[in-house]
Amino acid sequence: xxxxxxxxxxxxxxxxxxxxxxxxxxxxxxxxxxxxxxxxxxxxxxxxxxxxxxxxxxxxxxxxxxxxxxxxxxxxxxxxxxxxxxxxxxxxxxxxxxxxxxxxxxxxxxxxxxxxxxxxxxxxxxxxxxxxxxxxxxxxxxxxxxxxxxxxxxxxxxxxxxxxxxxxxxxxxxxxxxxxxxxxxxxxxxxxxxxxxxxxxxxxxxxxxxxxxxxxxxxxxxxxxxxxxxxxxxxxxxxxxxxxxxxxxxxxxxxxxxxxxxxxxxxxxxxxxxxxxxxxxxxxxxxxxxxxxxxxxxxxxxxxxxxxxxxxxxxxxxxx
Length: 320
Description:
Shape: globular
Helix content: 25-40%
Low-confidence stretches: 39-45
CATH architecture: Alpha-Beta Barrel
CATH class: Alpha Beta
């Protein structure tokens, strides 16, 4: 298999510029370890970067999850990351924002440092791409990624002393997405929905099956679950809120209340119909649940083919 080397692969000592999005629940120890391994278990020739989704974990649980990840690594020196959700609270932030760490951010950071995570991630709201699952924005990746690359040009990281690198995200499910992001100037990709539909993902089987069956109009955004745009699978419950109860959503979120929580307090019998399946628009192009290793291998192989294919368009003179 061809090796795609970028500054990000060199920085983390990984073979491929593929990073697992730190999705709450889905990106557990097994999946994170599988992505970090992502190759021959003995030699660990090919590897990406696995990231645990640490949202709503206590410091004790986070440490347990990290150690479970380490137990699954074929080589204990392999890098891994941790992703926390740290929205702005108070001031001019959305009134529905709250501290997901419950005042334990300092302790969580201590765990991350003590366990020697190679990467710590948190969301920068201004840089959310438009096609992704979970918390998202409305700017397409094809516009946002080049804009971010231009914005960081000439800047250096205070941590590494090296240039600031951009990791592309949103609608990456195969090698074409990886190749496109590299051409836009990103140095790696952050992959979510494609890995939810993996054997090792901690997501429920129904979540994986829902991604596989989703169509092009089935991934929609709503404010009802978190007060911020969240892309989820379209259900009658979500449609009812989005199409018939917009005034109620606006009023509740203005007060700092989450519409879904209010609804569950009043109508707990709706809990099954209200189940939430986070996914990006790319779910319409995912047709089977695969092992994480297969996903990484296919993505890198196909990206290399796309990059090599591009070379055929380069000539010393125009063909008339």
